[in-house]
Amino acid sequence: MRIYKKIIPNEYVLSIKDIDYNNLAKQGIKALFFDLDNTIIPYDINVIPEDIKDFLEELNKEFKVLVISNSRKKRVKFATQNLKSIPYVKFARKPLKFGFKKGLKLLNVKLDEVCIIGDQMMTDILGANRLKAKYAILVHPVKQRSDHIFTRFNRKLEMLFIKKVKRKMPETYEKVLKAYAEK
Ligand SMILES: [Mg+2]
Question: Which residue of 29, 63, 91, 149 has the fewest CB atoms within a 10 Å radius of its CB?
């Protein structure tokens, strides 16, 4: 399959608080894999703030929640220190399958029970689709200006692929990516 087809999420939302979690539960989703940087918090915040911590812990009663990040251990461990009941996978190497598989094992769930949530098409969404996870949600970056250099490169790639989706799959573009591309 062409790469541009693999960077298409099931849906796009402005923030993790805008996701329709009831709908996910109805679709049989049991586990939520959240990316950390620019999905939960921007790169320039060190620890997950209280309100987001409460939000994630509330979700963790209905679902099994995991934080899965490409960042190094120090960053991820420090950022998630308040999430007592929520595990993390650090240095996941998304879009590779390695870290996701670790997460599946940690939470003891199957691929068709997982929703992957992240702000980057080239890592989170491409990874979710390569893995064949049940559902993938693209979140608008919390604070794009704090992106690292690799991420900035990935965002340029994203725009190329989005243009291709627009050309080849106009209906899908309208439905899932237009709002993201034009924001
Ligand atoms: Mg991210």
Answer: 149
